[in-house]
Amino acid sequence: MTAANPAPAEAVADPATAGDDLDRDDGENGGRRRPQFVGVDRRVFLAMLIIPTTIHVLIVWIPTLLSIVLSLTRWNGIRIGDLSWSGLENYDEIIFGAFQRDFFQAVLNNVWLLLFLFLGPTLLGMFLAYLLDKNIRGSRIYQSVFYTPVVLSLAVVGFIWQNIMYDQEFGLATWAFGGGEPVAWLGNQEFLIEFGGYGLSKNFVAILVAMAWRHTGYVMVLYLAGLKSVDASLKESASLDGCNEWQTFRHVLFPTLKPINVIVVVITVIEALRAFDIVYVLNTPRNTELLSILTTDNLIGEGADNVGRGSAYATVLFLLCIGFVLWYVTNHYRNQEGSV
Hints:
Elements lengths: L17 H11 L11 H31 L2 E2 L9 E2 L3 H7 L4 H33 L6 H13 L2 H12 L6 H6 L13 E5 L2 E4 H27 L3 H9 L4 H12 L1 H17 L2 H6 L8 H10 L6 H33 L1
Antiparallel strand pairs: 1-2, 3-4
């Protein structure tokens, strides 16, 4: 009785090299490779790619492009037959013409808002996060209190400050700082800072305080999450080296929070440019206009008669936003490539 002949060595397949053999065979057959997705997987992949892209284009980019086109026209928004091309006339009116004052005051208010969010709520939120990171007694209660405004609708926040805080006779701000006299917090159009007929009005300062109430809690949560992820050994090493709390935060903690800093900067800039809800609720007097407010007033507001002018405001706001986005994305990927 003879033993069976062993199988040839070349007939034994090694699972570890099976993939390499397939790639080698594909190379020998003219460089053809099997597709990554086949059958149902391919259809699902195409659906997941095409459907979100189509929705995004339809609700974001097509309206954006139409707004740019409409900014070059004069139209009352009722009948298409009334639409007429006007070129750059709308831009000439809002920048150099009859609406120049409203435009530049709105741009200035957007700048005031951006500076205030950086110097006020952002620094305050960082400070609160640093205190809460020390696990003080009742820290969870404080976190809930400071974060509550963030979960509220912006319009609701506006109504709270309009009717509870800034009521001229019975508001909490009037009771605390009014000296027993009615105070028109939202009606005082005098400039606190003025130059060339433009400036920072007192009623806009009141709106900024209302916006800070909400933005502070958002920034606090972001920095608190970042501080919780910092390695405790870094703080201990700084303490052993003789660093005080400020030196530890400045030279150890703050550099490790760079990803959080980037997120906060992006969120703050976007918030300053797209701010609308709270300002619209509290926007009764003049000198509190923003570009978003002017856009809405010219499109659907009382006495709106030129969709083209409203689209021109919207286009200017879009250019400001896209300019920041392009700058951020370019620098972000450039820094990533430099760190590789």
